[in-house]
Structure formats: structure tokens, C-alpha cells
Amino acid sequence: MEISQETAEAIIRQAIELAYQIIPSILYAILFYFIGRFIIIRVLKGLRNYLNKREDSPTLGEFVYSFSKVVFYITLFVGVATIIGIPISSFLAIFGAAGLAIGLALQGSLSNFAGGLLILAFKPFRVGDVIVGQGHMGTISKIQILYTHLITFDNREVIIPNGNLANSDIINMSTQETRRTEITVGVAYGTNIKQAKEIILNILVNDPRVLVEPEPFVALNNFGDSSLDLVIRAWANASDLWPVYFDTMESINIEFEKNNIEIPFPQRVMHQLKQKKLS
Predict the structure, then answer these.
(1) Can you give the residue range of the structural domain that contains 88?
(2) pLDDT in tens, 195-214
(3) What DSSP state is assigned to residue 184?
(4) pTM of the predicted structure, to 2 decimals
């Protein structure tokens, strides 16, 4: 099939007109891309320098940097496509459908992701803090965007999903400089309570780790089945809490033995009733 000269000339004219329409858009798109890329590189460099100065949360800083980079380059790509003439509504439809599909497929991960953002932003705990969360007690070793790593006191690593952790109660034992230890000690009925209290208070007063203010406190707390229960409360620096607790328990036992104060064990008193013989 041969093309006539008039048809060929018409095709050439249309091609030239189309080139006049497309080439400026392509040139503008290329110029927009390089200028935008230059600006993005400069902004990301400044953002990186700023985040590197914030040493309190390196994980959050890395996420903010990566997220910003993705957003900037997607915006640049959409701008270039719009200049060329591709409708932006097409991109919105594609991104919307992809986001919906990803969201449905990764519901649990997105929950952990959101929980990680909340933890990194509001900082209910930091690396090195001792916490109780999700039934585990230990030291925070790592905070990631999806999971938090906790090392228990017997050196086991517990990996907790951030979604669960962010939506549950957390006890942080490292935020306060001082803490109160509480001990309950039972003594036998008939014990001189005043003497027992003086012995315990003397132990606490002579321990330099026990704070003077608030002052140590000892009082009769309960009439138990087998003992009179004394409650002991003393304040110490957070780092000294458990040494004070264990040393005080040991010292009380030693001093009670010296002063013949009995720490009773559970016991029952039985009464035997004799029946009278019928005459």
C-alpha cells in the first residue's frame, strides 16, 4: 500500500506540530526534575545534619529521614509526570488502590508501625530503662519501628510488638531518681512490738543508702493468723533499692535472733474435747 505525497506531508506536519507541543513539555519536565532533585538533596542533607544532632532517638531520626526522602521523590515524580501531561488523577487512583491493598494485607504490622511512632515520639521509656510491659520485666536494649527488644534479668531477650506495648500499661522503674522499698515481717504473738520496731529502725538509720527524707517508717500492719505483721517502708536511690531490700531482710533476721524475737511459721491450735462416759 503506497502513501500519497499529500498524506505523507500531512503526517509530517502533524508530527512537527506534535513535536512543538511535546518537546517544550519534555524540556520543562527535565529542567523541573534537575532543579527539584537539587533542592531535595540540599533539604535532605540539612535534615540529616539536624537529626544527627538529636542523639536521644536515632531510630526515629532514621525513620523521619527515610520517610521524608520517599515523600519528596514521589512528589517530584508526580510533578514531572504532570508537566508532561499525564493526569494526576491516575496517580491518585493507583496510590489509593495500592495503599488499600497494602493496608489490608499488613494490618498487624501497621498497628506495630503506629505504636512504634507513638513510642519514639512520646518516649514513655528509653534505651537502658527498666520497665514492666506485657508481663515482662527487664532492661530496654533496642527500640525499633515495629518491635521493642527487652533483656530480662536472667539474660533472655524478649521482642515485644510495639502495637501491643503502646496500647497497654507500662511501668517504668527508671524515670525517678528515688524509690521506696516495702517489706512485711511477721513476729510471734506476745512479742514486744516497741522493741521490734526499734531494732528495725536502728538497722535502717545506720544504713547510709537509706534516705533520711522521707524518713523510714515501721508500724504494726496486721493481726495475722500466726503472727503480728510489721510493715517497713524506706526510701533509697533507685540504683540502691534492691541491695537495701535484701540487706535489710538479712539484718532483721540476724538482729531478731540476737534478741530472741521469733519469726513464726504458720501453725494451728487444736482443742480436743473429751466426751463424758454415760453411767
Answers:
(1) 8-105
(2) 999 999 999 999 999 999 99
(3) E
(4) 0.60
